[in-house]
Amino acid sequence: MIKKAVDYIGNPENSVKLRRFFYITLVMVVLLDIGVHLFHTEHTADLPQGEHESANLSHKGHDAGEEFIGEKIWGFWAIYGFIGCIIMIFVCKGVGHAWLMKKENYYD
Amino acid sequence: MTNMWINPAFLFILGSFLIPILKGRVKQTFLLLVPAAAFLDVVLMSQGTYGAVQFLGMDLIFGKVDRLSLVFAHVFTLMAFIGVLYGLHVKDDGQHVASFLYVGSSLGVTFAGDYVTLFIFWEIMAFASVFLVWYRRTQKAVDAGFRYLLVHVVGGLILFAGILLRHGEVGNFAFSHISPEGATLATFLIMIGFCLNAAVPPIHAWLPDAYPEATVTGAVFMCAFTTKTAVYVLARAFAGFEILAILGAIMAVYGVCYAVIENDARRILAYHIVSQVGYMVCGIGIGSQMAVNGATAHAYAHIIYKGLLFMGTGAVLEMTGRSKLSELGGLYKYMPLALFFTVTGGISISGFPLTSGFISKSMTVEASENYSIFIMLMLLTASIGTFLSVGLKLPYFIWFNKDSGIKPKEAPLNMKLAMGIAAFICYFLGVYPKFLFDMLPYPVHWEPYTASHFAEVMQLLLFTGLGFFLLLKKLTPEPTLNLDVDWFYRKGAKAFMWVANKPIAIYEEYLGEIYNKWFTNFTLRFSNFLWRIFDVKIIDGIVNDIAEFWKDLGGVARLTQTGLVRNYAFFMLLGGIVLITYYLFK
Q1: Which chain A residue shows the shortest CA-CA distance from B180?
Q2: Please, which residues have CB within 8 angstroms of residue B378's CB and are 6 or more apart in sequence?
Q3: Is B48 helix (H, G, I), strand (E, B) or coil?
Q4: Is this complex scored with an ipTM above 0.90?
Q5: Cα angle, residue B199 at apex, residues B193 and B202 outer, rounded to 5°
Q6: Residue B476: CB partners within 8 Å, gap ≥ 6?
Q7: Contact, B133 vs B214, CB < 8 A?
Q8: Could you report the per-residue pLDDT of B526-548, keeping only the tens digit for each?
Q9: If pLDDT is split at 50, 70 and 90, which confidence band does B559 have?
Q10: d(CA B488, CA B296)
Q11: Do A101 and B482 count as a contact with CB atoms less than 8 A apart?
Q12: Would you say residue B2 has pLDDT above 80?
């Protein structure tokens, strides 16, 4: 079964179908997020207060209950994921080519 | 202390001595029985303090059993079983012995109640694990192993200094939680020692340097134990230290950034250990019950899925002899099972719903949201990088993309079984998180499967996927070597050798010149003077006179030496007669 599934995914003939499936999934998760924003009111601050108590009562900068701005925006994490991914690729590859990437026998 | 306590560490350490004696099926059975017995031992163990020994006036505790040590021991013994099964076909006894000592000493650290016991097992760990690198028997592995050992010896010395200083301050070796307010130099030395093993930048480079050079099975063991025992000791001693929260978040991003540009599959995974351990270190630094729970849960899940990833890429390395993405590709037709297992590890590490990463990683992220939004965003950025490199890039360039022309077979049965068990645990924990949550050090009042959490994670990951496919060409792996902070000691050692060879050599030459010019010249002149006055006139005078005497004497004696046998025979006969006459008439 695994082999069949893998062969299906690997077969170039199916790439259009797979891509279409992927795009539909993308739209669906954004729709789900919008749905969550419209119909759901659950939030971490509603959890019992003890949950956020420090085990050692020591840390500073604790601002429990403050909601992150991104959680109010529809599809925020989709944008964050997409832009984050692109920036990461460009920055890492850029710094890599400019500085970090050397020939494989660099240390020899 | 009424019930018996068996230290699982000793099962492994004593067991390792029997490995070279046993043969064939008996040995394989024994190899599997020891971790199985140790796992049962841990499952049946009840909390308490065991194995207290008085030694040289010190109180050594070999068995501090509480919820924290139990959950780590649980996953250590479980992973040991999976790892042994994975390497069951290995004929090299040395590898089995090294891995047993390594696992045993990790368990020794886990149950240690004092710093002396901890330190001893800590050092055995370093020395046992380096053999898992050396047994690869390549020049690269030997070199990387030496670097690994040197770094760990330095880390051990720092830890030891901290332990001794701490003993001077508090008067005992007890290994327990240290409050951030009471932190001294000793505290930070111990923390640095622990952080070195947790691969916290900038003292992390030993990990991506050594792990990819280890043997196929060795890497499976190494990825589980060294960093996670460090997480355990940090969780016990340093929960709530803000510096760890910050360093952890930096680690999480640092590791994924290197993974983006890395070419070697196992080095990508090694950098992702740095990143994933970052989540744990961050959770420990936050220090709340939820964060420590999250760190512990993530360590548990991580050991299994990272082991699975190293097993999947190890299977490819075992069957093809290659681990560089630029030399692989198109394996999906030949190793579909290895692909399935690797992707299972890949989606677990990325934290997809229904996998172990989803329930463990998000607990730490959730805890970080209440601590600092900035740290939470760093952890989520690391999630993007994780899915990008391990979930997508690694399987895509090994199993799909171009056809590399190699047609390997699937890995042997024992390897497939081991990967199957690990994959099962990844899904099992994702579907039934209560199993893990019930083992955590603090009670869990948190539900991972909520609609908003599900939507958040799916958006983050799937849109990362979109970015990946759009920039696929840009991500093509390049056969390069990437500079990291190991540059300082790798080039540093070269610089040291250069200083020894060049400036010191030149200096020596210069010094030689001065020596020749002044010292030699002076001694020559002085000895010349001595020769002319003292030697010739006095010493030579005496010597010459004595020589003259012996020459004259020789002139006389020469006359007796005729060289004729007849003469010698005559004198011998004469001497003989004289002697006999003397004895007869005395």
Answers
A1: A58
A2: B249, B250, B252, B253
A3: strand
A4: no
A5: 90
A6: B326, B397
A7: yes
A8: 878 777 776 677 777 777 777 77
A9: low
A10: 33
A11: yes
A12: no
How many A×B Cβ pairs under 8 Å? 210
Q: Which of residues 443-462 of B touch A (CB under 8 A)?
A: 445-446, 450-452, 454-462
Taking residue A87's Cβ as centre, other Cβ atoms within 10 Å add up to 13
Percentage of chain A modeled with pLDDT above 70: 75
**Would residue A104 count as lying in a domain?**
no
Supply the pLDDT for residue A57: 41
Over residues A78-99, the pLDDT tens digits come to 999 999 999 999 999 999 999 9
Place of tokens 């909390």: B47
pLDDT of residue A1: 87
Domain assignment present for residue A38? The answer is: yes
- Residue B247's alpha-carbon distances to A10, A86, B192, B302, B388, in angstroms, are 40, 24, 12, 19, 22
Decide if B334 contacts B308 (C-beta within 8 A): no
Are the beta carbons of A85 and B464 separated by less than 8 Å?
yes
Q: Which sequence spans correspond to the domains of chain B?
A: 1-238, 242-487, 503-584
Residues in A closer than 8 angstroms to B380, CB to CB, are 77, 80, 84
Which residue range(s) make up the domain with A61? Answer: 2-72
Contact across the interface for A29 and B462, Cβ inside 8 Å:
yes
A71's CB contacts (< 8 A; 6+ apart) are B452
User: For residue B490, which of A98, A95, A108, A103 has the smallest C-alpha distance?
Assistant: A108
A78 domain-assigned: no
Q: What is the mean pLDDT of residues B563-577?
A: 73
Per-residue pLDDT tens over the stretch B219-268:
999 999 999 999 999 999 999 999 999 999 999 999 999 999 999 999 99
Number of Cβ within 10 Å of residue B30's Cβ equals 16
Record the tokens describing residue B402, joined without a space.
């171009």
Q: What is the DSSP letter of B146?
A: H
Token pair of B536 as six digits: 């010739």
Q: Is A72 on the interface with B (CB under 8 A)?
A: no
For an interface test with A, the pick among B242, B268, B437, B460 (most A C-beta atoms closer than 10 Å) comes out as B460
User: Looking at the 3D structure of chain A, how many domains does it have?
Assistant: 1
Nearest by CB: B452 against A40, A83, A96: A40
Cβ(B467)–Cβ(A89) below 8 Å = yes
- How big is chain A by its Cα radius of gyration, in Å? 22
Q: What is the pLDDT of residues B180-206, one digit of tens each?
A: 998 999 999 999 999 999 999 999 999
Q: Would residue A87 count as lying in a domain? A: no
The CB density around residue A71, as the number of other CB atoms within 10 Å, is 15
Q: With an 8 Å Cβ cutoff, is A14 touching chain B?
A: no
